[in-house]
Amino acid sequence: MVNQNGNSGMGGKRTEAGARLITVVLDGLRYQGATQWLGYVEHLVESGHAARYKVISELPSLSRPLYEVLLTGTPACENGITSNQVVRLSGEESIFHLAKNAGLITAAAAYHWVSELYNKAPFNPLRDRHQHDEQLPIMHGSFYFEDHYPDSHLFADAEFLRQTYNPDFLYVHSMNIDDAGHRFGGGSKEYEGSVRIVDSILALAVPQWIAAGYTIIITADHGMTVSGQHGGTTPEEREVALYGIGQPFEPGVYEEPIPQLAIAPLMAGLLDFAPSPRMKPTPIIPGLHVPAFGSV
Ligand SMILES: [Zn+2]
C-alpha cells in the first residue's frame, strides 16, 4: 500500500506521487492516548503500513502557539505567538505560504484560529466560515468556531474540500478531543471516547486518501493532563504522536523523540519544496526517505 499511487482520475491538475500531503492535527491528544485508543491507526503501524514517532511539543503547550509552531517551524519566542490571546496574523512564512508560492493548491478544514494566523484576523463567523480565495495562503478554507463542533462534521468538511478542489496540501484539524479533556478531564471516559470516535472516522477516510495518492501525517499540537489541563511542561502535556503513512516513511515504531519544530520542515520536504529560512535546522528523522532531508 506504500505506493498505490492510484491517480484516481479525479481530473485534478497534479497527480504526481509524493507531492501531495494531508496533515491531520488532533487537538489535545497526548501520546499515550494515541497509542492506546487509535486502534485503526495503530493497526497500520502493527501491520507495517505506517511509522509512529514520539514528538515533544514546544512550550507553552497551548493551542495557538503550537499551531504556529507546527505550520511555521519557529518557536514562540521568535514568532511572537506566545499565548492563545495573541489574535493577529502570523508574521512568519507558513507551509500554506510556501505551498502557494510553489504553485500548489492549499486547503484547510480547521479551527478558526488557523484562519486568524494565516488568512484573516480577527475571525468574523458571518464572513469567514467559508473562504475561497486563491490569493490567500489558505485558498480553500472551512473554519469552525465552536469547540464542540462535531469531528464527524469537520472531517466531512475536509472531504468536501478535497473532493471539490483537489488540494495538494490539505490541513485537517479537529477539536473534540481537547474539548472533552477540558470538560471532563484527560482520564475521563469522554476524553477516551472522543479519541475512539476520531479513529473510526480516520478508518474511513485514510484508505481513500491513500488511494488518491496522498502522503498522510497525523499528529497533535499538545497533550492533556488527567485534570484536563495543558500549557505546562509535564510529559502528559508535551508528548504527542506523529504517524507517517506513505512511501516516504519506512514503517515501524521509532522511540527516539523528535522535536516539534521538525514538523514544518518535514511537511515542506514531503511537499517537495524548501523550508523557509526561518525554520530550524532539522535533526535526522529515522525511517524517512525525503531527499531534502538527507535522512536514513
Ligand atoms: Zn485545549
User: Judging from the principal axes of the Cα atoms, what is the shape?
Assistant: globular
CATH topology: Alkaline Phosphatase, subunit A
DSSP summary: helix tally: 12
Q: Quick one: CATH class? A: Alpha Beta
What share of the residues does DSSP label as strand, in percent? Answer: 15-25%
Description:
- This protein is of the alpha/beta class.
- The chain has one domain: 3-Layer(aba) Sandwich (Alkaline Phosphatase, subunit A).
- It is built from 12 helices and 9 strands.
- Strands 4-5-3-6-1-7-8-2-9 form a 9-stranded mixed sheet, with helices on both faces.
- Helix 9 packs antiparallel against helix 10.
- The relative contact order is 0.24.
- The N terminus is likely disordered.
- The structure holds zinc ion.
- The site of zinc ion has 5 residues, from helix 9.
- Pfam families: Phosphodiest.
- This is Nucleotide pyrophosphatase.
List keywords for this structure.
296 residues; alpha/beta; nine-stranded mixed sheet; 18% strand; disordered N terminus; binds zinc ion
